[in-house]
Design a protein that fits this description.
With 104 residues, the protein is an alpha+beta fold. The chain has 2 helices and 5 strands, in the order E-E-E-E-H-H-E.
């Protein structure tokens, strides 16, 4: 198990499905409903070995360009209502990633 950087976006979609189960999308993206909005998780960083993980202190900032360039088109293809979304906020952190089964 090693750390992997993950960005989380909180988005709103006026005409999106009311309840959306956890849905895995290509490009290391996961989406699920969260109340009236949606949570999108995106793994954008390389895996970090356990020795290097001891030095991790700077998580960086949420980068909306990743959502716009890497995620949005993919979501809109799978859920057409996601063509019109609004990013409400987000956060960045390192999550445990199992290299044996690619489970986060």
């Amino acid at each position: 198990v090693v750390p992997q950087r993950r960005q989380t976006f909180n988005i709103a979609c006026k005409d999106g499905p009311q309840k959306l189960p956890l849905m895995l999308c290509p490009l290391k993206t996961v989406i699920r409903s969260e109340g009236p909005n949606y949570i999108v998780l995106y793994s954008d960083g390389p895996l970090v070995d356990n020795e290097a993980a001891k030095e991790l202190q700077d998580f960086g900032c949420v980068d909306d360009s990743h959502f716009i360039e890497d995620i949005w088109e993919n979501l809109a293809y799978r859920i057409p209502a996601m063509e019109a979304v609004k990013i409400l906020g987000g956060w960045v952190g390192y999550y445990e990633y199992n290299t044996l089964d690619q489970n986060a």
